[in-house]
Design a protein that fits this description.
Order of helices and strands: HHHHHHHEEHHHHHHEEEH
Helix content: 40-55%
Mean pLDDT: 89
Distance between the termini: 39 Å
Low-confidence stretches: 94-101
Strand order of the largest sheet: 2-1-5-4-3
Number of strands: 5
Radius of gyration: 21 Å
């Protein structure tokens, strides 16, 4: 798909999500052929001409000023992540435009980073923009043990292509939609990344669920939240995840997973640690 198609579909999808009430516009009860705002209403809210907004929505966005794009973002009620994605789409590909494209960040971490992971008392993993799990501590490897069955564990591939994912993720549809949205966000930030493009193509070919979620045009950046993981050995654990970017390692992030103090999930995390100590979990990334 071309960059113009990405821009067009993203803007149309966001426009469809905004109601007249949200935009503060009067509703005269006239029938609308499509949901959401009309182009002329977005143009009015953004303070640009209808012709100019129409040109932007058709994908001719390069050269648009940041002020105009910010006005469009406000008119469409974009989140901070969606606004950043729009700005990414507006940036032309630069000197990295070569025949093979860029590749994802490192597939390993420095020994000092591994020592930090090993001294954390909670599950922790390191992943890159493509969602490869490139390092972990013992508890992190235990928590995501089904993912680590692969020679090159990848969270997106597990979620969409492994039949165990629907049991492992208590809210599997949400995990799918967030994962597709994270990949779209990363693809917008680094459109010449050959490995991300390859993964998206593989998932689109092999997973109907991915095709459905990808078509929603959502973008998401993992920062913090809660998920329930159905671990095959200790059962369901309700954990809070927090994601930290790694200074000096562009494209790599550390994610930690913690239960509420005194909760049933905290007790299960102790059981998980005991189980991990008896298993051979040391043969993968970060071991």
């Amino acid at each position: 798909m071309s960059k113009k198609d990405d821009i067009r579909k993203f803007l149309i999808s966001r426009r469809a999500n905004v109601t007249l009430a949200q935009a503060g516009l009067p509703d005269f009860g006239d029938e609308r052929r499509v949901p959401g705002l009309r182009r002329e209403e977005v143009a009015q809210l953004a303070g640009v001409s209808v012709d100019y907004y129409t040109r932007l929505e058709r994908g001719n966005i390069h050269g648009a000023s940041e002020a105009v794009l910010n006005a469009i973002a406000r008119a469409l009620h974009l989140t901070d992540v969606e606004r950043e994605h729009l700005l990414d789409l507006a940036r032309p590909a630069t000197a990295a435009a070569n025949a093979t494209g860029r590749t994802t960040a490192a597939v390993a971490v420095r020994p000092s980073v591994q020592r930090v992971l090993d001294n954390l008392a909670m599950p922790a993993v390191v992943y890159n923009a493509r969602q490869d799990l490139v390092a972990s501590n013992l508890l992190g490897r235990a928590l995501f043990s089904p993912h680590f069955d692969s020679d090159r564990p990848n969270m997106a591939r597990f979620i969409f292509l492994d039949s165990r994912a629907q049991d492992y993720y208590a809210d599997w549809p949400l995990a799918c939609s967030l994962t597709a949205a994270m990949l779209r966000y990363e693809a917008g930030r680094d459109p010449l990344n050959a490995e991300i493009t390859e993964l998206i193509g593989e998932l689109a070919t092999r997973s109907p669920q991915f095709r459905k979620d990808w078509a929603d045009q959502d973008v998401h950046e993992h920062r913090t939240g809660r998920k329930v993981y159905g671990h095959p050995e200790v059962g369901a654990m309700d954990l809070t995840y927090d994601v930290f970017e790694m200074p000096g390692e562009p494209g790599l992030s550390i994610a930690t997973y913690t239960p509420d103090e005194g909760s049933e999930s905290a007790d299960k995390l102790i059981l998980l640690a005991s189980w991990a100590a008896t298993q051979e979990l040391g043969s993968g990334p970060g071991a």
